[in-house]
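Researcher: Going back to the complex we discussed earlier. I've cleaned up the inputs and rechecked each line, so this should be the final set. Can you rerun the prediction on the complete assembly and write out the structure?
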Amino acid sequence: MAKTRVIEIEPITRVEGHGKVTIHLDDHNNVREARLHVVEFRGFERFICGRPYWEVPVIVQRLCGICPVSHHLAASKAMDMIVGAKKLTPTAEKMRRLMHYGQIMQSHVLHFFHLASPDLLFGFDSDPESRNVIGVIDKMPELAVQGVMMRKFGQEIIKATAGKKIHGTGAVPGGVNKNLSIAERDGFLRDIGKMKKWAHGALDIARKYSLDNLMAVQAFAVFNSSHLSLVREDGALDLYHGNLRALDAGGNIIFDQVDYRRFNDYLMEEVKPWSYMKFPFIKSRGHIDGWYRVGPLSRMNTIGFIDTPEAGKALAEFKNLTRGMPNHMSLAYHWARMIETLHCVEKIEELLNDPDLQGTDLMVKGERAGEGIGVIEAPRGTLFHHYKVDENDLVTFCNLIVSTTHNNEAMNRAVKKVAQDHISGKPKITEGMLNHVEVAVRAYDPCLSCATHAIGKMPLAIELYDADGNLIDRNSQYL
Amino acid sequence: MSDVIIFKIDGVEVSAKPGQTIMNAADEAGIYIPRLCDVEGLEPQGSCRVCTVKVNGRTAAACTQPAAPGMVVENDTLEIRNCRRDIVRMLFHEGNHLCPCCEASGRCELQALGYRLGILQPDKYPYLQPVRPVDASHPDIMLDTNRCIRCGRCIRASRHLDHKNVFGYIGRGIYKQVGVNGKNLAQTDVHVDDHAVAPGICPVGCIIQKRRGFYDPVGQRKFDVNPIGTEIEKHLKDAGGKK
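Model: Rerun complete. Updated structure for the full complex:
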């Protein structure tokens, strides 16, 4: 029997959370299987039960330290339904939007400058000693400082709207607990011009990288898939609120303008025994073919336009590359991410000049409901929060489908494709080859901490193989 | 008998009226003695022992010990600070105090004392992680005994201010808990306007008024503005450091 050699990349570096990749090779170094495993475990869906609903937006954001605002706002939107707040006050909605744009900006900047830029600037095969953020600081200090200062700007926006840079409390069921002071507003307006200039600079780097390396980008971890996101009623990009739209690989609509409160009619989740992450799929297409991608790339594919002028122009150029057809290049996530960063800066500027942010009407309430669903476009993609609350105000049910979970199948395909393209059949496997696999995962900016929130539904399997790669024992239990 | 009692706290001369406790006199002198079970408006009970001081070399609870002429009180010494740290640590470790997602954060006296005493991480005792139920049966009030420190403030307020006896201790030793006079909170005659459930009576997040969590923004919460004890110490600063 042919022997299987297993290569493990553990931990995957420069991503949020803990995961590993396993690559199974045969006698001729051909890749037989390659998988992304998420090896950390959280359990939020279970321990949120029994807690009062108004605690939820504060508890669930502890899923993540990078984009806690996404969970904070998705849960708050769900709790708006619970307290019967059908329409927030202008101040409340705009404060939440400001918080959201601030966090997407800081999260995208963190990923681009700190995590991804070393690969793009120095090359996937470059010296690993300097292929990191320290290398960027060393060789391109001005660029590194821009990354740090842009992230700081986004974090300060979060602090001004949520009270703290990480894990704040600004959004409450039915609204927000503070407005933006004139002093806070003026502080941000002083720096907004600089932020816009730097956002353009980062966008140029990402765009140029794709265009200058078009052949490679068109070949690296490229595979057809469906794409899903929220879109505004008129088809514009809206990161805070909208309806669901899904496209197939050819750009045909699978469903459109679906009220996200009906997401259960359109999406399902599958569990597999080798990962703590679930595998969502579009119901009508079944669990084999129904997988899809989310996040910046998918959003650029699903939306019709961006309503801020400079990001709008950038989108047009992005779409021209594939002549308006869906872009399936994993590395194009970086370009899409920087278009969104520019969009967020433009939106922040627009909001800062809106006097509604100084309003004092912060909360509304209406008829109490027992079920709430909140959906938002988080930095990494569409985020679903679904809760049920009993008559005593305690949570009885919680289901979260986080952005990284949607991209689970896509990341596994990316890993397998890159492993086959760059490792299969090679007599010697180098660190650079393995980094190609990590680059593919990194393009999705996965947040593995967020993605492993479930407990009680995941059958963890332990498999024991002999030296020839034969399965000799298997044990499984529901946690 | 003289109308003024003179004694010393940490070498500072303090005056007290007859019948005043060490803590009352210290408060008036702008000297803060940490406390949890004692609160203005209720009879002291001396149970939490956070206000432990040394009086003429022997430990006593400052909230119940009357001031006496010539007393020498040690309050802010290393030994006493360490003693208080241990007491506060044990309260944290004995219950389930999850400050990051507790709506009492920023107004919680236990948390504020933790900060004041420099307890920044759980580094001394194991967590007991008790399993305690949440009583959310009442339409307006919730009882989460995971956060209870058994200070008895709700019990005294219910008994002496509301004349109701809604709350009381049940169990013994480490199993001692605050319980309610009924199957659950909804079956008692507690009302949201009662003193026992008013903000400021429960020093932690055990008794909360429903649907008001996180209304105060971070930065504007009680102890964000004035860290615990500073309002008392302000008297001393206003008087130029002498009393």
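Model: Worth noting: Chain A touches chain B through 24 residues (CB under 8 Å).
Researcher: Good, that matches what I expected from the previous run.
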